[in-house]
Amino acid sequence: MLLTISTTHTPATDLGYLLVKHPDRVQSFATTGGTAYVFYPEATADRCTAALLLDVDPVELARPSKGQKSPDGFSLGRYVNDRPYAASSLLTVAMGRVFRSALKGASRDRADLVDTAIPLEIEVPALPCRGGADVVGRLFAPLGWTVDAVPVPLDPAFPDWGDSRYVRLRLTGTLRLAEALNHLYVLLPVLDDAKHYWVAEDEVDKLLRAGDGWLGGHPERELIARRYLAGRRSLAQSALERLQAADGVAEEADDGHPEEVERKKPLVTLRKEAVLAALAGSGASRVLDLGCGPGALLEDLLADRRYAEIVGADVSSVSLALAERRLRFDRMPDRQRARITLIQSALTYHDDRLKGFDAAVLMEVVEHVDEVRLPALERAVFGHAAPRTVIVTTPNVEYNVRYESLDGHRHDDHRFEWTRAEFAAWTARVCAAYGYTAELRPVGEDDPQVGSPTQLAIFHQDTTTALTGEAGA
């Protein structure tokens, strides 16, 4: 994979300062699936070109990371194939490793030049492009680039065969280098419409960081969010909501004077705030986050000193590893570390480690469980673990009509989504079986026709009912 960046800024060799890579040296960097090399084919005062060459090692790419099992399937096929290694997310990962300072817009030696737009010419000789050259123009032209995307024929000797799915890309424009690199960092995998790694919640943060200042106003932001986040609807929706919230600034009032418009909080933030408020109201000190995922709620719980003991439980070891990294377990002070524990546990089985807590949270969890397995979850959580307070959130399927681009469930892994009546019936059944009372609350904008986007229930143990911890089992 090859990417070249050229400039005719005077002196052109200032490009080396902006990239923090010396034009007189060839440098190599170990990166995912191979080795990245940076070198300068030309470096004069009039024109300077930096090249990033990623040499992919298919054996290294197929080798599992430390702690991972070897992937299933035809093992030899991962080594012996004719797969073309064209610009993809592998190249953007190498960019993040090699041009880290330049992506952030930092240069110790040319700080004044970091914020200066300079003439740039960028070439990618082989770029996979789902949708053809037209999509390339739709993505790059609104950002100030002059786009030259030439389809690569399947075989020049046989023109009747037509074009391949690859294009030769040439971009020219006058932009800040950091802007240009962040455009490439986001849009190369968008054009490929594929990523070589699992896309999790932290990818939303990456997208918004790299898209700061340009993604919110891009006419193709929905396409960009969907493809960058590997088609995961819930993540794309979260990214778009956060972009909308960040962009809600001044508009013209009726009197002709600009006034600041209240910024809408994204639903993911409103949901978390509602859960934290319910927890605080319960007076809990020892808290379970059941189905904690990569630790979004755990981060807030840990920051609140009222919670003396916090346990995050999830069936996925990958999610727990992401949570551990998100919370920076390796740098956490001992006193903080003593307050939190992560455990692998399936919520449809009895687990004595979850007993005796003041409160438990199931935030956007129940809809990921097959409906036939819900009674097992109820017995394990409300019957066996039996915390004094249980807080549950789940989507309101009636609100889905307000999402124009939504077709089906809000997340590909949702087994069901309830109406308000169905959620109320479920909470009533759980209360009757396990000795709880429940309070239902809306989360998000309460539409008069279809209700709020999220439903929340707060279950409190009914102390007047003499039920044991195994009630209803």
TrEMBL record:
GO biological process: regulatory ncRNA-mediated gene silencing; RNA methylation
Coiled coil location: none
Molecular function terms, GO-annotated: metal ion binding; RNA binding; small RNA 2'-O-methyltransferase activity
Enzyme class name: transferase
The EC number(s) this enzyme carries: 2.1.1.386
Gene3D superfamilies, sorted: Hen1, N-terminal domain, Vaccinia Virus protein VP39
Residues of the Methyltransferase type domain: 288-380
SUPFAM superfamilies recorded: S-adenosyl-L-methionine-dependent methyltransferases (SSF53335)
Keywords: Magnesium, Metal-binding, Methyltransferase, RNA-binding, RNA-mediated gene silencing, S-adenosyl-L-methionine, Transferase
Catalytic reactions of this protein: small RNA 3'-end nucleotide + S-adenosyl-L-methionine = small RNA 3'-end 2'-O-methylnucleotide + S-adenosyl-L-homocysteine + H(+)
Superkingdom as given in the UniProt entry: Bacteria
Hen1 N-terminal domain location: 1-243
Cofactor(s) needed for function: Mg(2+)
Homology family: Belongs to the methyltransferase superfamily. HEN1 family.
UniProt name for this protein: Small RNA 2'-O-methyltransferase
Native organism: Longispora fulva
